[in-house]
Amino acid sequence: MSQSSKQTSQIAILGAGDVGATIAYSLIMNPVAGEILIVDPKEEVRDAQVQDLSDATFHGNTSTRVRAGTHKEAGQCDIVVITAGAKQKKGESRTDLIGRNKAILDSAISDMKPFRPDTILLLVANPVDVLTYFAQQFSSLPKHQVLGSGTFLDTARLRGILASKAGVAASSIDAYVLGEHGESQFVAWSLASIGGVPLDSALEKGVEIDKKKIADETRGKATAIMESKGATNYGIGGVAASICKSVLFDERIVRPVSAWQEELGVCLSLPAVVGRAGVVRG
User: Fold this and answer.
1) Where does the Lactate/malate dehydrogenase N-terminal domain start and stop, copy by copy (predicted)?
2) 16 marked as part of a ligand binding site
């Protein structure tokens, strides 16, 4: 993507809470779009976040502009990141949020219509797989243009844990968490490798890993963080910004994102090629 096209691209973020603001900050620190629109019915909070985030654009490495926007404007952006929704409380599962967040999603998408034909919707709110499915129904956009963050963050967590055990950089680990972003997620151990060498063969002599324990730690990491600080925002902020970059720069990188699975009739995460059209190939 050229510098001029970056400057004209727009990303809208629905929801000015911790997650939305952290995604915006990640997009500022690793400049992707020329303009970021923050959309939230709580105007006082939205405007305060815009002012705070705008201060971060003056670090000398970006020309990104941050401003308040409307739902109608969001529908005309290159990407709409949907974080708006009820927070997951202590003791709640992600699926406990379905009722509240489905209604919020329906209203938000209705307010954004009509969408620009090539707009990409990126769902971050939970339960992300279910909301990705409903967003596809409500928006009437092609299914490949509506995706969710899925198990990308879980995969990043898994790779971090494996890297620590193996004593290598996380970038050298190739492993995926697939399925639902939730209790039924699973690690595709048969695909796990280090530098292209199957995991079990790549580990140093005497180094053993407890696969069940690692899978459980990966699955429970978000809950552990929330029990201590009340929310998770930095990890998902980085992951969402990475997906936005893959889309706008048409990187065609393989990511475990939530997408429509025709043969199953649901949205869940499998390795998918992500580019300017969304899920270019599942």
Assistant:
1) 10-148
2) yes
Q: Is 125 annotated as a binding residue?
A: yes
Residue keyed to tokens 């973020």:
13
Amino acid making up residue 42: K
Domain 3-150 CATH class label: alpha beta
Q: Which two tokens stand for residue 11?
A: 């990303």
How many CB atoms within 10 Å of residue 134? 18
- Give the pLDDT confidence of 171-220 residue by residue, as tens digits: 999 999 999 998 899 999 999 999 999 998 998 887 889 999 999 999 99
Query: Hey, which residues are catalytic here?
Result: 181
Q: Residue 20 annotated as binding?
A: yes
Q: Is 40 annotated as contributing to ligand binding? A: yes
CA distance 75 to 112: 5
How far, in Å, CA of 269 to CA of 80, rounded?
20
**2 Cβ contact partners less than 8 Å away, ≥ 6 residues apart:** none
Domain limits of the chain?
3-150
